[in-house]
Amino acid sequence: MVQTLFGRIHFARRRRLTGRREFRFKTLGYSFEPEVVTFDPYSMLVWSANGPAGTSGAHPWYIEPTQNGCTVITEEAQKGLLLLILARRVRSELLASHEDWVQSLKRLAESGQSVQTL
Questions:
Q1: Which of 12, 19, 42, 55 could tie 51 with a disulfide, CB 3.0–4.6 Å?
Q2: Per-residue model confidence as pLDDT tens digits over 74-117
Q3: How far apart are CA 27 and CA 94, in angstroms?
Q4: Among residues 24, 53, 52, 19, which one has the least CA distance to residue 36?
Q5: Rg (CA), the chain
Q6: Which InterPro entries does the entry link to (predicted)?
Q7: Rounded distance, CA 44 to CA 52, Å?
Q8: Where are the beta strands (DSSP E) in 2-76?
Q9: CATH 3.40.50.300 is held by the domain 2-113
Q10: Within its chain, how far is the Cα of 91 from the centroid?
């Protein structure tokens, strides 16, 4: 998935995000506690997580500067028997959730608002 963001996203940092930092979120009805495995400010973020029933995945976000903002490229790799069984449904829901995430980032970038990080 590729999305061009016009404008900038400014992060007000309370604590620096570093590799091996855990965070929590819920998506597609499941809660995840991924671990940041790579963080290069304004360039790349990669997290990995274990999911339900022995599933796991990794999710890189690449940020490429452009003249008017940046392009965000995101992809995800997953493994596990449950995902193989549910592949068709999970794949379409996953793509829709990624599109929602990227569109939310786009709206935030275009609004000029800051993001508070914990």
A1: 55
A2: 888 888 888 778 777 777 888 888 888 888 888 887 887 766 55
A3: 9
A4: 19
A5: 15
A6: START-like_dom_sf
A7: 26
A8: 2-6, 10-12, 25-27, 30-32, 35-40, 44-50, 56-66, 69-74
A9: no
A10: 16
Token output for 14: 């309370």
Residue bearing tokens 């392009």? 71
**Quick check: 84 and 96 in contact, CB under 8 A?**
no
pTM as predicted: 0.69
6: left (phi over 0), alpha (psi -120 to 50) or beta: beta
More confident residue, 65 or 87: 65
Which long-range contacts does 34-43 make (Cβ < 8 Å, 24+ apart)?
34/59, 42/70
